[in-house]
Amino acid sequence: RDARAREPEKKYDLVLDDTVEFVQAMKMPGTLESSSGSEDDGDGKKKKKKKKKKSKEKKADGPVSARLEGDAERVLSAREKKAKEIEECQRSLPVFPFKEDLIQAIRDHQVLIIEGETGSGKTTQIPQFLYHSGFCDNDMKIGCTQPRRVAAMSVAARVAEELAVKLGNEVGYSIRFEDCTSERTRIKYMTDGMLLREFLSEPDLGSYSVMIIDEAHERTLHTDVLFGLVKDIARFRKDLKLLISSATLDAEKFADFFDGAPIFRIPGRRYPVDIYYTKAPEADYIDACVVTVLQIHVTQPLGDILVFLTGQEEIETCQELLLERTRRLGSKIKELIILPIYANLPSEMQAKIFEPTPPGARKVILATNIAETSLTIDGIIYVIDPGFAKQNSYNARTGMESLIVTPVSKASANQRAGRAGRVAAGKCFRLYTAWSYAHELEDNAVPEIQRVNLGSVVLLLKSLGIDDLLSFDFLDPPPQETLMLALEQLYALGGLNHRGELTTLGRRMSELPVDPQLSKMIIASEKYHCSEEVVTIAAMLSVNNSVFYRPKDKAVHADTARKNFFVPGGDHLVLLNVYEQWAETDFSTQWCYENFIQYRSMKRARDVRDQLASMLERIEVPLVSANKDDNTAIRKAITAGFFYHTARLTKAGGYQTVKQSQTVHIHPNSCLFEDLPRWVIYFELVFTTKEFMRQIVEIESVWLREVAPHYYKGKELDDSTNKKMPKGRGKSKVELER
Ligand code: CDP
Ligand code: MG
C-alpha cells in the first residue's frame, strides 16, 4: 500500500508548495456501474496497455463519443462520419428510448411535466423529436425557453449541427439584443425574458405549436412569470402543447400548479460520485480552487475538471493564477488546458469547452453556475465546488438591491457533484467542511421572484393588460411589499398613473428591452436633447461587466490607462468617453489593447447600442447629440431615470441614500472616489466588503425636484450647504466642513 501511495506523492511534493486537505465523507450513488477496465484515460499500467491498442482514438471514452473502427472509418466521408457520430451520440442519451412514448404522451395531454436528470437530452433532443413528428406542419414553430443567454445560443448551435442546418435557418435562437432566427426557423431557443417580450407582439403565441419551458427548476424570475402566462393561454389555445421540463425535484409542484398535469419521468443514468470535504474551512476559496486543480492534475488519473465560480471576475483571477502556476511548473506536469465559461464570453470561445480534450492533456473548465444544469460538458470526472454563487437580493423595505456572493443550496451542491458522474465514476471536491454542508446550507434556493426588484416584470405585465397583479397566478407569489414597491417606483417614474394604469410613457418604456430606469433615462434624453450620448451610456451600462481590463501583472499600467479616461461629472461620462474615443478609431481592436479596454465588452456595447438606437426610431425618439462642452443635459437625463438611486454626502464624510438613509460607499474604481461630491446618483449597489455604489454621477439636488417632483418632498432635499460649487474642487471642501 505504501509503495503505491508514495509514487504520486513524490511527484506531488516536487511540484506543489501548498495543498488543501480533504476528507471523503460520502458517496453519491449512481445507477450505473463504473468498470475501471474501460477507461483509457487513466495513468495506471493496465490503462497504458489499453491506450496503445486504442491509440487512434484520441477522444475521451464513454458512450457519447463512440466512433467507427478500422476500414470503415477511411471509407466514409467526413460528412457521413459526422452524421454517424451525431446519431450514435443521440442514441446514447437517456431520453432516446422514450421518443415514441414521449410523443404519444404529448399528443394525449395538453400540458406535460418532463423530469429528467441534467444531460439526459431534454433540451437538445425533445424539440427534434417534435420536429420529426409533424409538430412544425403548417409553418408552426417549436419554442424552447432557457434561463440563460449562453445556454440558448450554445444549445441552438448544437441542435443546428445535429440537424445539419445552418444556425439561424431551421434552428435559431433569440436573446436580448440578438436575434438569430429567420422565416425558416422552426425550432427556436430563446431566453425566458425574450418569450416574455414576445407576448407583447403575439399575446396568444399563435405561431407556436409547442412551447417548452425548459430548466423550470431554476425558477428564474422570468420563468416564474411565464408559468402564469402560459397556463392562462393554454386555456383558450387548446391546440398549443405545453411542456414544462425540469432537472429534478420540483416536478410534483409544477404538476399541481398546472392543474394536475401528468409527469413524464426520464430515468437517469449516472455513475457514482465520491464526495470530499475540506478538513477545515478555507479562507480564500479562489486560492483553494487553484491548489485543488493542481493537486488533482498531478495526483489523479486523467479526466477533465469542472470548477464552479461565481462570476467573470473570479474566473479570470483563477485563470490567471492557474496560468502562472502551470507556467512555473513547466514540463514537470502534463498539459492543462484552462477554459472559462460565463455569460459574456463570446460564442466562439464558448464553443471551445465542447471540443474534445487532446490525448494526454487535461481540460479544466472554470464556469459560473451555468454549468450546474444548463450546459452539459462531456468528459468531466472531477468537480471542484467552493459552494458559492452570485445571487440577487432585494430588500423591499429599503429598496436596496444587491448582487451578493451567497452559499449555494444543498440541491445546487448535489447538482454540481452530479456533473462528475456522467461518463464514469467521478469525484467532487467541496471546498467546505461536511459540517458546513449539513448545518449551513439551505435545502433549496429561494426562487428569484421572491428576492428581486419586480419593476421590469410589473411594467411588462401591465403592458400585457394584466392589471390586478395581486391575484396573478404565481407558482410562488412574490412578497406583497415588493410588488407594492415596484408599483410605487413605476408610478414615480411616470410609467403608471395614480390608479396604477399604464401611461403613454409607460407604454413607450415597455418597448425598450431594458430596466424601467434605463428606459426612462433613454426616453428623457429626448427632452434634454442628448439621446446619442444617453443611448451610448445605456449600452455601456448594459454590458454588465467592466470594460476596463486589469491583468494582475500590469495592474499599475492598467490603472493609469483607466484614469486617462476620467472626465468631470462621473463614471457614466467616463464610459461615454471610452466609447466615443473608441468610435473615433473606427472601433479598433488595437486601440482597445493599447488602452487596457476589453475589446469584447466594447463590441457587445456597440451591438447593444445599435439595437437600442434602432428601437428609438420605433418609439419616435430622434437621435441628437448634446452640447460637447456641457454635460448637464446628460446628467439630468440620468437623473430622470435613476432619481431613486440618490445618495448624499453626510457631515461625517460618508454617503447615505436619500430615501432610506442607508450607509453606502463610493467604489474605489469610481472617478469620483477622491472627489466626494455632495449629491450622487448610482447605477447599482454591490455588496462585496461593503455596500458599494457602482457607476456614479454627480448631480445637483434641485434636479431631483425638477425630474421627480412627486417623489421628493422639499425637506428631503434640504441641504444648507447646497450651493453650486466651483468645478474641480477636491477633498478640501469636505475637510473644511469637518
Ligand atoms: O437538457 P438536458 O440536460 O437533459 O440535456 P442536453 O442539454 O440536451 O444535453 C444532451 C447532450 O448534448 C449532452 O451529452 C451534451 O454534452 C450535448 N451537448 C453538446 O454537445 N453541445 C451543446 N452545446 C449542448 C449539449
Ligand atoms: Mg437542459
From TrEMBL:
Ordered alphabetically, the record's keywords are:
ATP-binding, Helicase, Hydrolase, mRNA processing, mRNA splicing, Nucleotide-binding, Nucleus
Q: What is its EC number?
A: 3.6.4.13
CC terms in the record's Gene Ontology section: catalytic step 2 spliceosome; U2-type catalytic step 1 spliceosome
Residues in Helicase ATP-binding domain copies: 103-267
Q: List compositional bias (Basic residues) regions by residue number.
A: 45-57
Q: Where is this region: Disordered?
A: 28-73, 718-738
The segment(s) forming the Helicase C-terminal domain are: 292-465
Q: Does the keyword ATP-binding apply?
A: yes
Q: Does the keyword Hydrolase apply?
A: yes
Instruction: Provide the protein name.
Output: RNA helicase
Identify the coding gene.
DHX16
